[in-house]
């Protein structure tokens, strides 16, 4: 698994926030990417989840169950609904942690690729996000990962 290094992607981003904040966000970003890659390799996919960096420095996983599909509807889960539920849960408990990352599977339309998206946010209002494209290797059960790239992100947990 590639170890994400957002400092090589965005040196100006890191310089624009306090060192402790940058470290918190980078740690959550790396942990989120690694966990999503592991789930892809183990299960062939992953559901949206979050990581929080608690005030004492511990990292905790936050997840919600997908809603039951409507009777007679398609059997896919509602990833957008899960992300909304995770975001609301994080907003309700934001005093219990200093930073969070929401990790989800996205489609990069212009690149015609799937990607892991990790959006990190700190209580001091700093945000950083990155995407890691991936695709199945030919015939094998493993995955090929592209280059980690910075992405835009807006605060959603400490947005008010």
Would you spell out the secondary-structure blueprint of this structure?
Elements: H1 6-9, H2 11-15, H3 19-43, E1 49-54, E2 59-62, H4 79-92, E3 97-108, E4 113-122, E5 127-136, E6 143-145, E7 149-151
Q: Give the low-confidence spans.
A: 1-10
Average pLDDT across residues?
86
Number of helices: 4
Structural class: alpha+beta
Order of helices and strands: HHHEEHEEEEE
Question: Explain this structure to me?
Answer:
With 160 residues, this protein is α+β, with helices and mostly antiparallel strands. The chain has helices at residues 6-9, 11-15, 19-43, 79-92, and strands at 49-54, 59-62, 97-108, 113-122, 127-136, 143-145, 149-151. Strands 1, 2, 3, 4, 5, 6 and 7 form a 7-stranded antiparallel β-sheet that branches. Strand 5 and strand 6 form a beta hairpin. The longest helix has 25 residues, at 19-43.
Structure summary:
This protein is an alpha+beta fold and 160 residues long.
